[in-house]
Design brief:
Layout (H helix, E strand, L loop, with lengths): L3 H10 L4 H9 L5 H21 L17 E4 L12 H14 L6 H19 L7 H15 L15 H5 L10 H10 L3 E6 L3 H11 L7 E4 H4 L6 H10 L8 E5 L2 H10 L3 E5 L14 E3 L5 H4 L2
Parallel strand pairs: 1-2, 1-4, 2-3, 4-5, 5-6
Helix pairs in contact: 1-3, 2-3, 4-5, 5-6
Length: 301
């Protein structure tokens, strides 16, 4: 555990990088506030040292001005929280169960669905590409079977529906999403959505988020015929951004498996919004961990 006194000493001497701040915070070793202060202090220290050495603002490998050219964002769980559609989704599970004559407490229905979706995701994880309408349909079948109901993908009540699954009337962006995206774009950065999502699903929810004015491009897994963490979708997104070096791109997402692993494999800086799962291996460890999207403005120059 690094103490506040030690952190203050490191900060004063410019000896800790923003990457180290993100790593320490991700491991629960320093507070979010202290991490933010360290990032700002060490960035300024790096700039001052670099100027003295004639190296410019990219000295010492710190996150310095003009290093980054693009910021890519995942969509679901990142720009909007799934908590905004919990009520809607609970209703969907209840409707599926009751339609088959099953009456269970909501907690049991949620647990059955989490288990079903987890098994399906595990089985499909190695596929470089799949349609999410098929993924959700398979999860609905597994959910009903977990409740003791015979079901198949041909049953009308389990077929994927973008409106029923995502609940677009209730969907809303994170409070700081619009301002954060606007600020990044105003800095001259390319801002893009890179999402594992079908095109019809995107069309159902994207207009309701009202973020289109801040985004240069969108890449869906259906368009790319590639699902994160497969490299194909990342490469198409890079091409839309003008083919910057991956090291100049920041990828922000909520999944260590899809977003962090895929971005790191190509050399991008990975930022996780949320918490790192306990025991996650090195390849799933993000470079930075944030709680709010606005924290990106301290990480990206």
């Amino acid at each position: 555990m690094i103490s506040p006194l030690a952190c203050g000493s490191l900060r004063g001497k410019g000896m800790i990088s923003p990457l180290a701040c993100g790593s320490l915070r991700g491991k629960g070793m320093i507070s979010p506030l202290l991490a933010a202060r360290l990032r700002l202090a060490t960035r300024d220290a790096a700039v001052r040292l670099g100027r003295c050495a004639g190296l410019g603002r990219t000295a010492l490998g710190y996150v310095a001005a003009m290093r980054h050219r693009a910021v890519f964002f995942d969509l679901g769980g990142t720009l909007f929280s799934y908590r905004t559609i919990n009520t809607h989704f609970d209703g969907l599970l209840e409707e599926l169960a009751r339609g088959r004559g099953v009456e269970r407490p909501m907690d049991e229905l949620r647990a059955a669905y989490r288990g079903a979706m987890g098994r399906v995701m595990f089985d499909w994880a190695a596929r470089p590409y799949y349609l999410h309408r098929d993924l959700f349909t398979e999860a609905h079948v597994a959910f009903l079977r977990a409740l003791g109901v015979d079901a198949s993908a041909d049953d009308p009540d389990v077929r994927f529906s973008e409106g029923r699954v995502l609940g677009e009337p209730e969907i809303a962006p994170r409070d700081d999403a619009s301002k954060t995206l606007a600020a990044l774009r105003d800095r001259g950065l390319h801002v893009q959505i890179v999402s594992n999502i079908d095109n019809d699903q995107l069309e159902a929810v994207w207009p309701r988020l009202a973020l289109h004015h801040h985004v240069h491009a969108i890449t869906t897994s259906e368009e790319a015929r590639s699902c994160k963490p497969d490299p194909g979708i990342f490469r198409i997104a890079l091409a839309k951004a003008g083919d910057p070096d991956p090291s100049s791109v920041v990828f922000v997402g909520d999944s260590v498996l899809h977003d962090v692993a895929g971005a790191k494999a190509l050399g991008m800086t990975s930022v996780l919004i949320g918490e790192v799962p306990p025991g996650a291996p090195e390849k799933l460890q993000p470079d930075h961990v944030i709680d709010e999207l606005s924290e990106l403005l301290e990480l990206v120059d």
